UniProtKB/TrEMBL annotation:
It comes from Pseudomonas oryzicola. The keyword Transferase applies. Keywords: Cell membrane, Glycosyltransferase, Membrane, Transferase, Transmembrane, Transmembrane helix. The chain crosses the membrane at residues 85-103, 164-195, 216-236, 269-292, 304-323, 329-350, 362-381. It is a multi-pass membrane protein. PANTHER family: MANNOSYLTRANSFERASE YKCB-RELATED, UNDECAPRENYL PHOSPHATE-ALPHA-4-AMINO-4-DEOXY-L-ARABINOSE ARABINOSYL TRANSFERASE. This is Glycosyltransferase family 39 protein. It comes from the Bacteria. Residues 64-199 form the Glycosyltransferase RgtA/B/C/D-like domain.
Length: 518
């Protein structure tokens, strides 16, 4: 019992450290980038409209991502009453859970010391800090990937443990309805199959269990069915063309098509290895010149644990590198596997570095403590440096100068919708400029106004009758009324018109619109 209590205290201390590092400044943060603005807006619109299975962005169907992350943000918003805090709680929850997973796996595969090292390495890595502190899907996706990898390794290296295998499959299903790549833990089955065939040490062979392996697919589908089943039922009962188009978009175009031929963030094959890993996997990459030979020696001893971990990390990197679309956060799910492969070798490596240089020991400890302290301090400093979201300021001014009248959005960004203080009209988020449609709308609704970027203002409106509001999203924005129409745009009715207004006035969301910065 004393040993169990010590273990639990150790694990709790690591999880508290994760919460402290990732949660620093959480009450001061405000959504500042396009992803955070979009996902928070979708979650709040779900709460307002009750459209849970088909997400919407300013009344238009949003078909880029499955809804599980937005559901979670909506739930936390409802419970906490503070959307700007709720946006970051999924990442905070992920940080604590992944820390627990790494500590437990390190302890079970090697010993308690390795478990502590694995958890600390994960929290010390720059990419962990930079992603888990954000209100983005990838901070939540890594939770399901880590749980999937945990269950699979419990089964493949410490099993047979079919319950953990099925839990891993269900976690992957939930990962898929968070983001389509949630299945990546299953890639570990490839090095496992090789290790079993070659009789490597530490892997558990389970021949003649085909029906049990197949049942894992059912658990994965059960995880996906939490969203897909009610979605299909609702579409079958009354879905129109837009709902059917959404189903096709989310199941086909945003998954296989986007992977094979991405239309955004196109980067070369070597992008992650040259532009991302050297920076975002600090300080781990500094040890690679010593780790690579050490890994090679362990693999020569046919250590199945390292084969599965390193093989999985390599396959995840290869999987994302083969896609033409790449962002620095895509490879974050590989990080837990990497730190587990590093942790058992770190004591040997530190002994090798410090044994001949005793004076360096205190220096190393001081640097490690300072590294964590700086991450914690940065969590409080960043919100002060960033200040108020410029879209918040812009839309507040727009409501003031138009006296809260209906506002037409042209070439808009998610921040304009999220921080809107008045009813808005738009003609679709994607596609070309809608300034012709804005001119048509103002001619038929003379009490309305339009928010237009400077780059397209002169096509339909006189600049001398426009009022400058400010600059956001690398654009200068002006508000115009019907009197600014220069008559040069054809009067063509738009094919799609979307109306949206937040049910509560902006002042009812002080945590979102007015962050409590000192």
């Amino acid at each position: 019992m004393p040993r169990f209590n010590t273990l639990m205290a150790e694990r709790l201390a690591l999880m508290v450290l994760a919460l402290v590092l990732v949660g620093a400044g959480i009450g001061w943060r405000q959504p500042m980038n396009v992803d955070e603005e979009r996902f928070l807006g979708v979650a709040l619109e779900m709460l307002q409209s009750g459209h849970w299975f088909i997400p919407h962005r300013a009344a238009e169907i949003y078909g880029d991502k499955p809804p599980l992350f937005m559901w979670t943000v909506a739930l936390f918003s409802n419970l906490s009453g503070s959307p700007s805090i709720a946006l970051y709680l999924p990442g905070l929850f992920s940080a604590a859970t992944i820390t627990w997973v790494l500590h437990d796996l390190g302890r079970r595969l090697w010993n308690r010391r390795v478990g502590v090292i694995a958890a600390l390495l994960f929290l010390a890595t720059y990419q962990s800090y930079s992603i888990l502190r954000t209100g983005q899907i990838d901070s939540f996706l890594c939770l399901w990937v880590a749980l999937g990898l945990y269950g699979l390794l419990r089964h493949l290296l410490l099993g047979p443990a079919w319950g953990w295998f099925y839990l891993a499959c269900a976690a992957m299903g939930l990962g898929i309805i968070s983001k389509g790549v949630g299945f990546v833990p299953a890639l570990v089955l490839l090095p496992y199959a090789w290790a079993v065939r070659q009789r490597w040490h530490g892997v558990v062979a389970m021949p003649g269990q085909a029906w049990r392996w197949s049942a894992g697919l059912l658990w994965l589908l059960a995880g996906c069915a939490i969203w897909l089943l009610p979605l299909l039922v609702s579409i079958a009962q009354g879905g129109g063309a837009a709902e059917l188009a959404y189903l096709k978009e989310i199941l086909l175009r945003q998954t296989a098509s986007r992977y094979a031929n991405a239309w955004d963030h196109r980067e070369p094959f070597w992008y992650f290895f040259v532009k991302v890993i050297p920076k975002y996997w600090l300080p781990l990459v500094l040890a690679l010149p010593w780790l690579v030979p050490a890994w090679h020696r362990q693999l020569q001893k046919r250590d199945g644990r390292l084969l599965l971990l390193l093989g999985w990390v390599a396959l995840v990197l290869l999987f994302f590198s083969l896609s033409s679309g790449k962002r620095k956060l895509y490879i974050f799910p590989a990080l837990p596997g990497l730190v587990l492969a590093i942790a058992p070798l770190l004591p040997w490596l530190l002994k090798r570095w410090l044994q001949r240089r005793p004076a360096w020991r205190k220096g190393f400890t001081a640097v490690a403590l300072a590294w964590f302290a700086l991450w914690f301090a940065r969590g409080w400093v960043e919100p002060l440096q960033e200040g108020r979201n410029p879209h918040d300021t812009l839309m507040s001014e727009a409501a003031r100068v138009t006296s809260g009248a209906e506002l037409v959005l042209v070439d808009w960004r998610e921040g304009h919708w999220l921080f809107a203080r008045q009813p808005i009209v738009h003609f679709g988020f994607s596609g070309q400029s809608r300034i012709d449609a804005a001119a048509y709308w103002l001619r038929h609704h003379p009490t309305a106004y339009a928010l237009i970027p400077a780059t397209t203002l002169g096509r339909c409106f006189s600049a001398d009758k426009a009022r400058r509001l400010g600059e956001t999203s690398r654009a200068e924005w002006y508000v115009v009324g019907a009197d600014a129409d220069n008559g040069e745009c054809q009067s063509v009715a738009p094919s799609h018109v979307y109306h949206f207004a937040w049910a509560s006035p902006a002042d009812s969301l002080p945590a979102l619109h007015r962050p409590p910065l000192p």
